[in-house]
Amino acid sequence: MDSLPDGTSAEDVSDLMTRLSSYIKNALTTVIIIVLITGLSFAQGQRPEQVVAIFCAKLIDGRSESPQEQMVIIVRGNRIEAVGKAREMSIPKEATRIDLSAATVLPGLIDVHAHIIPDIGYTQDSFLKRSSAQNALDGLVNAQKILNAGFTTLRDPGDMDPFYAHLAVRDAINSGRVQGPRIVAAGHLLSITGGHADFNSGAPELNIPAFGEIVDGVDEVRKAVRKEVKWGADWIKISATGGIYSAGDDPGLQQFTFDEMKVAVDEARRFGRYVAAHSHGVEGTKSAIRAGARSIEHGSILDDEAVELFKLHGAYLVPTIYTSEYTLAEGEKNKQPVHAMEKARQLHELKRKSFLKAVKGGVKIVYGTDTGIIPQGANARQFAVMVKWGMPPAQAIRTATSMAAEMLGLSQSVGSIEAGKYADLIAVTGDPLTDISVLEDVKFVMKSGQIIKDRPKEPVRQGH
What does the pLDDT average to over 107-112? Predict the structure, then answer.
């Protein structure tokens, strides 16, 4: 054995070896713990996705004219993996079986004109009395009502908040922090001074703020679009004409000039956004289409030229036709303003005739309800009005499924029951092609593979 260095005793060596052994044991223990934690995390990350097999009596896929019978939808995780005839499908052994064999299954519905903040009784000055925090809380509750009604996707076309409460709700839902329909949204409604989004019923010396963004001239419009994009707007909303529920303006008259509308469209397009134009009167509608607006909201007065412009430019019509029926039937009870009741009465028959003209003329029509004017969660009531006013039931369903997804630019993800798309599904008892009002009582809702609502007559069976 080599001699020890001067001054080093055998006890010192023994102590050193003991400490070294302790360090090695601690290091090995640490390595083992890290390996176990890493392995556990990896195992959790690799956990198999949930697989569900949904058995349907009838399936309306959102694209076809006719339903398919005795179908199975295989859902893996949040997407549809396969769709086919029950007798031909191979059901994965690990699949949970959901029995909707007494129901009709459809894609999750889409409402492209759903304001999530206001509800019945919310007047144009209500936003002056409410904080953005209160608006956000109400917006979340209202969005959940819409989801439970079977609408798994919506577009909020600008809402009544001085800031951007509804965009905060959108972000919370879309990030998965809270439950609700996936949302795309405009920020504020851009309007001229004295226009639809201005506050026109106060004393002039009070200088009361408007609920929208008031801009005049192309430079102000351009800057406003940039501001909306800055704060996260998915769409830009402009007011081409006056409105029904706003005081002091005429829904039949054009507000923004063509040049103002055109700069809004051009600026939005540079940032990858579409423009939606609020418009009742025909001249405002035609100017907005020529300017490049992707959608016309309301479109209450149409002529033959307007119909041809829709088709020439590929624009979409979002006719919120249930609003006037609801207002005329329930407005007095809900204490709606006198000017709103009168405007709704004047436009009601024009809306019916224009809607039928659009249907017969081959305009691309998309489902939008204007919730806030009608009750939150009552979104499906408009289907019956569309059919009563001349639209075939199958087409009415497509307006709220594949056609709505197309307008929103979301056809790759939602709007029909096809492999690869999100597992957004609803079920109703009865056949909506013979009685479309059954869509007002949705029994089953699934969004992105997660069951939101489950009230079918037949029990859900956990299976092999």
Answer: 98
- Domain annotation covers residue 460: no
Same domain flag for 311 and 374? yes
**Helix 132-148 vs helix 165-174: crossing angle, to nearest 10:** 50
Question: Which alpha helices (DSSP H) does 88-217 contain, by range?
Answer: 132-148, 165-174
Strand ranges (E), 260-411: 274-279, 295-298, 316-318, 364-365
Checking if the pLDDT of 1 tops 70, the result is: no
The CATH number linked to 59 is 2.30.40.10
Q: Are residues 362 and 249 in the same domain?
A: yes
Q: Indicate whether 3 belongs to any domain.
A: no
Average pLDDT over residues 117-138: 86
**Identity of the amino acid at 452:** I
Domain end (from 371, 388, 408): 408
- What's residue 331's pLDDT? 82
Rounded distance between C-alpha atoms, residue 18 and residue 96, angstroms: 58
The domain in which residue 241 lies consists of: 109-408
Residue 412 scores a pLDDT above 90: yes
Tokens encoding 375: 């009750």
Among the residue ranges 33-47, 232-246, 250-264, 353-367, the one predicted with the least confidence is 33-47
**One domain for residues 40 and 86:** no
* Cα-based distances in Å from 61 to 112, 295, 399, 416: 19, 24, 13, 5
Instruction: Tell me, yes or no, whether 91 and 148 share the same domain.
Output: no
Nearest partner of 83 among 413, 418, 415, 412, judged by Cα: 418
Residue 176 sits in the same domain as residue 305: yes
Count of domains forming the chain: 3
Same domain flag for 137 and 98:
no
Reduce the DSSP state of residue 414 to 3 states and report it.
Answer: coil
Regarding whether 156 and 247 lie in a shared domain, the answer is yes
Evaluate whether 224 touches 215 at the Cβ level (below 8 Å). yes
The whole-angstrom separation of Cα 426 and Cα 151 is 9
Residue 112: which pLDDT band, with cuts at 50, 70 and 90?
very high
pLDDT band at 12 (very low <50, low <70, confident <90, very high): low
DSSP-assigned states of every residue in 45-64: HTPPPPEEEEEEEEE--SS-
312 and 338 belong to one structural domain: yes
Size of the chain in residues: 464
Parallel/antiparallel/unpaired status of strands 444-447 and 450-454: antiparallel
- Domain-embedded: residue 372: yes
Residue 98 confidence (pLDDT):
97
Q: Which residues are catalytic?
A: 237, 370
Residue 152 lies in a domain: yes
User: What pLDDT is attached to residue 54?
Assistant: 98
Task: State phi, psi for 250 to the nearest 5 degrees.
Answer: -110, 120
Please tell me the predicted confidence (pLDDT) of residue 461. 41
